[in-house]
Each structure stands twice: as C-alpha cells, then as structure tokens.
Prior knowledge:
Elements: H1 2-21, E1 45-46, E2 55-61, H2 68-79, E3 84-87, H3 89-94, H4 96-104, E4 108-111, H5 124-142, E5 148-149, H6 158-168, E6 171-173, H7 187-197, E7 203-207, H8 211-226, E8 230-231, H9 234-239
Parallel strand pairs: 1-6, 2-3, 2-7, 2-8, 3-4, 5-6
Helix pairs in contact: 2-8, 4-5, 7-8
Amino acid sequence: xxxxxxxxxxxxxxxATRTFGAGPETPLQTPEKSGHxxxxxxxxxxxxxxxxxxxxxxxxxxxxxxxxTPKLLDLLATxxxxxxxFVIGENVAEHPEIVARAAREGHEIGNHSWSHPNFGKMSDxxxxxxxxxxxxxxxxxxxxxxxxxxxxxxxITAREKHWIHDEFxxxxxxxxxxxxxxxxxxxxxxxxxxxxxxxxxxxxxxxDIHPGTIEAMPxxxxxxxxxxxxxxxxxELIRMARPQPSHPSPQxxxxxxxxxxxxPPPAPSPVSSPSG
Length: 276
C-alpha cells in the first residue's frame, strides 16, 4: 500500500511539473486574434459606385450593331455624352470601324466575350478563349486593349473573377439598373425604368442592338440630365469611388468600420434575366 501511494505521488508531481513548469502553450494565432487584419479582397467587381457627385455610367451591351450603334453614337455626340460599350467579339470582327469610331469619340470599350456564352458553366480554357479572341479583336479595331469585362448574363463564379482579373487585368463590371430592354417592352417603359432606378453612382445596363432602346435614349438621357445626373464612363466612375460613410458604433466613442466599395451583388440568373 505504501508503494502504491508513493507511485501515485510521483505521477502527480510529474504532471504538475509539465503543466506549470513549461509555461502555457502558445495558441495558433489567426489574423483576427493577433490583431492583424487579413488583407482586404481586391476591388475587382463593380455593380455601382459610392461617389460624392451625381455621376452615373450608361453602358450598352452586345454590339456593335451595323445600324443601331452608329445612330446611338450620333445622338451621344450631339449631347456630348460619353458611355461604355461592352462588345461581342464576333460583332467587333464584323464591324471594327464602329468600335474604332466609338473609341475615337471618347467612349470606353469593354470585353463582353466572343459569342455571349454562360461563363459560369464553362471550363477555364473556354472562358479564356472567349476573352482572348475578343481582346485581340478590340485591340485590332482601336489600337489598345480593354481593361473592363462584363460576363454575359452577369454569370460568373467567384473563382473565375479572380483568375480573369489576375490573367487579363480586367475589372468585372455588372450593374444596378436594368430596364429589361431585351424583352422589348417599348421605349417608354425602358425610359421610365431607368429614370426610376438610377441613383448617383449607378451603372445602367442597356443594349445597343434593340431598336426600342435606341428610340428611348434621347428622352431618357435628357430626363436624366434634367435630374442633375452627369454622364461618365465606367472607369471614370470607378476613379470617383469613395468609401461608404461610417455609421455610429453601438460602443461609446467608436465608429463602425468603413464599408468597402463596391459591395458585390448577387449575379443575375441567366435563366430569369438574360440581360447583359
């Protein structure tokens, strides 16, 4: 019995020595626990911008159209308005002179794929081919390559956004105003939807391949201007981006962290919204 108690005492002393003598184990620190924030995700996707002034970006997809895009360029020139065109590579190859004119007149040109497929359902190699061919066609038409890309239907995965940005340098441009002009609801409906939804910093989606959209534009642009909006290209709008104003923290004397600009939107479903 004596030896049993002695053995128990030795084991207890050994455990105490390991527990207290060696000091506490250093915990594995995460960036949050160590006081170092993880690097913020790079702002590569935009559906709108928080800007100080009443600026907006009008964007037109799926062209150039042989007849409609020149009509749009004419009315934009009359009003001294600059917009952004997200072009289809096949159409650029067929009408490079229209893209060259748009760029020459100060409009911005973005990549909208070669043939308007659904990127979210494609392999990386096929997406890469779509973008590269369009990139080459745009560069051939206007002398330099685009810096913006809009995925057809707004369909793109988070992983695709990052490798496309890393490989091509593109910013991914979505939208926050959609008049559903692809459904051809008529010029008045297109105009009213744009006027109702547009706010400072908006990126407005429409298409320069539908006659009703082009017919709606004169009164739409005039009404937006009458409301005090200023028209800029998407890249100009992004350069105007400001952090969202901070909100009071529930803790005394504290401030909530500044909201990043932009906030990524849910990508529109190509099934329910074939826009873009």
